[in-house]
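To: structure desk
From: M.T.
Subject: fold request, one chain
Message: Could you run this one when you get a chance? Sequence is below, nothing fancy, just the single chain.
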Amino acid sequence: MNKKMSAYRIYLIFAGGTALLFSLFFTVSQIYRIEVAGLNPLQLVLVGTVLEAACFLFEIPTGVVADIYSRKLSVIIGLILIGGGFLLEGSFPIYIAILASQVLWGVGHTFLSGANEAWIADEVGERELDRLFLKGAQIGQVFSLIGILLSTAVGAVMINLPMLVSGFLFIMLALFLMAFMPETKFTPMPKNERNTWSNMIKTFSEGIYSIKEKSILIVILFITLLHGLFSEGIDRLWNAHFIENIKFPTAVNLKPVIWFGIINAVAMILSIIVVEFIKRKMNKTGRLEKVWLLLGINGVLVGAIIIFGLAGNFAFGFATYLTLYIMRTTNGPLYRAWLNQNIKAKVRATVLSTYGQIDAFGQIIGGPIIGYIAVKYSISVAIVIAGIILSPVILLYLFSAKQTKRVTTEEVSS
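Reply: Done. Structure tokens follow.
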């Protein structure tokens, strides 16, 4: 009897399971690093920098497994390494162990990256993909919220327990997939199509050449870089800002892990509602309307980051953090839709890959700078600086609106 389950069902289990387990880990990981491991702001940011660098450096060599041997094998290895990294960090609250864990699970992430999508595309065909990816994303949102609630409840008892549980269950998920994940349509990729360092450099240079041919894509390149430069500092320091500067209400005697669970849950619920609304409206808007929407979103985002950095009480800090969280999650789908509208189909994959590399460069460079500012001056100053770093996007979007209006007018007149 064939013990393999359908690829469709396995993909949904994978989407929901990984979303829950990542949420279980990340809800408490920053609090653990601050309160148990005692990391300072620069160390917090460098944790993220090491992770980004590991993902960037190992993207190519780990891709060989998915290209040559097996998509399934690549996914299983990735899950085991991520689980091992989470177990290592949760077991040893020492800075060097935390850095080592980032390398371990960063490499694991690169084994997963693209392999699960390539596997399911092979198994079910392109016709089913849009519906399956949408359903997987919706299941992922629900399970992420469940993960936040579970992590908050368990972390209130023992702060590192959700991290350990997440790591263990990642390995269990890998063993489950080893037994039940089908792989019936995999064929090794031809040598000339495989990811290599030379192909990566070639893709980057081809992407830059394609971008240079269209001024709007050059503008988007700088927008992408600015988002990379500011994002790592915010992602790593917002928890510390609440703990050290904003403080939690003393009238309600709750542990920080519970407060962060509440903040994360409210932020996720609100962002799901707002993003769903934007998605329903998005297909009806042209390029120019998207630019104006993105201008408004990014203007509010810049203001929210700066005000959040200056916030000195919980109500104000909570409101501004929710605002910046919702703006960032809303910006994502709109930005991707606008970007794709401006790229010719024949070079789309190349250009998108180049933008991904630019974003990674920005995070690797910007994170340590913002972390150093946090140590040298304060976390509040660092977050304000992060907002200032992002602020030129307002001018870039204004320029984009002007360019898009000119192109649209030319297209109509011709």
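Reply (cont.): The two ends are 64 Å apart (CA to CA). Let me know if you need anything else for the meeting.
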